[in-house]
Amino acid sequence: MMKIKIEGLNINGEGFCNLDKTKICVKNVLPNEVVEIESVIKKNNFIGARLINVEKSSPYRIKEKCKFCGNCGGCDFMFVDYDKGLEIKKQVIAKYFKDLYNGDIIIHKSKKEFFYRNKVSFYVENDKIGLLGLKSKNIVEIDKCIVSKEGINKVLKISRDYLKAIKNISIHHIVVRELGSGIIIVLVSDKKPKDIKLILNSLKKEFGENFGLYINYNCKNSKDILSDKFEFIYGQKYLQSVVNGIICFTKPYSFMQINDDVRNEMYESVKNEIKGESVIEGYSGAGILSCIMAKVAKKVVSIEINKTATQDAEKTRKENNIINLENINGDCSKILPQIISENKDAIFVIDPPRSGCSKNILEKLKENQVKKIIYISCNPYTLKQNLVYLKESFKIDKFEIFDIFPQTFEIESMVILKSK
Ligand SMILES: C[S@@+](CC[C@H](N)C(=O)[O-])C[C@H]1O[C@@H](n2cnc3c(N)ncnc32)[C@H](O)[C@@H]1O
Predict the structure, then answer these.
(1) Which residue of 267, 283, 329, 335 sits with most ligand 1 atoms within 8 Å of its CB, as the best mutation to test the pocket?
(2) Which domains does the chain have, with CATH numbers?
(3) What is the rounded CA–CA span in Å between residue 265 and residue 404?
(4) How far, in Å, from the CA of 5 to the mean position of ligand 1?
(5) 279 forms bridges with which residues in the sheet?
(6) Rounded to a whole number, what is the largest CA-CA distance in the chain?
(7) Which of 82, 154, 241, 396 could hold 179 in an S-S bridge, CB 3.0 to 4.6 Å?
């Protein structure tokens, strides 16, 4: 066991301390805390440690509001006062990007610190339902998730009763998404689950006609929780919601930002960057931002790899009578380079998955000296890699953080890049 003083947090939310030439990293700590730790991994000049005891606590450490904290792997930053936590996120980002940007970083806080999540994928094993554990990959049974919306919590209870009643052996996940006044439930199973009427009746009792039920056929050990084999069972096929004046139609499979209020604020910030120009959007999901931008752009071309998401995007476009938007279903790394060469004067909006933007796209953006890029990222690590790649041709004009994931150390950034 060792005693150390925490110097600061790194980009993964771990506290660090430099002892001689060794860097020690440990989770669940705050700057200036004195803590007892035990080493878990030792490699060259690095020690990955586990927290044993907080000897001198930070004034910003608070008691977690969730009784599953410490067991459930869901929220890793609930032990920190919300406003201080945001300040820490800002400091960490400022330090991490200091070689590339030393201007102000604007923070957009979440109106809701709890009950904000609009989607959860619950893990199921027989009649157990919950989330994956912090220390193991076993399911931690929960009866409430205080970062998820109320309707999702009601589905959690209904699902548990149903799994018990049918002595479940085939369902291994239950995915729930709540948007507007509706909720969609997907039972992910190897084969058709037993007595679906049971869960259907409970859902009708709770939500009236404001829900949709699907089965998704997928094997337990698949890489992705959902396959593309859906069976629609009952109710609403789409979730209908209004986002910044756009009526949206979303199916269970399409990507959607999980915090409605902060997402809306982020989309508004993107919209404010566009004043009549043409926009090319890569990694466009269910196309909501595309419609919002189309209201102020000359035209928008959006590219998304997921077929259902592009179908949702098309439905949303048509229902909103938007005619200056083209939704393309395809792989950005194959389609975007050509589009960049043909649309040098456009604004480019990219919002890639955690792995970041493809190198060949970044290369084309540089080669064509496009005027402006709006880069949205949920992973500061790949964001930095990509920005370093772009730095000889572009300068960072604005850096904003959107707190889409309160109670976790996840950070969503929006960076505006302008040609040098
Ligand atoms: C972080 S989400 C952004 C979605 C959208 N901008 C929004 O705000 O809802 C990333 C999206 O990129 C899509 N995607 C992943 N790899 C892709 C690729 N190679 N080409 C096109 N789209 C891709 C995913 O399906 C997902 O919808």
Answers:
(1) 283
(2) 2-95 (2.40.50.140), 97-112+259-419 (3.40.50.150), 119-241 (2.40.50.1070)
(3) 10
(4) 41
(5) 300, 347
(6) 65
(7) 241
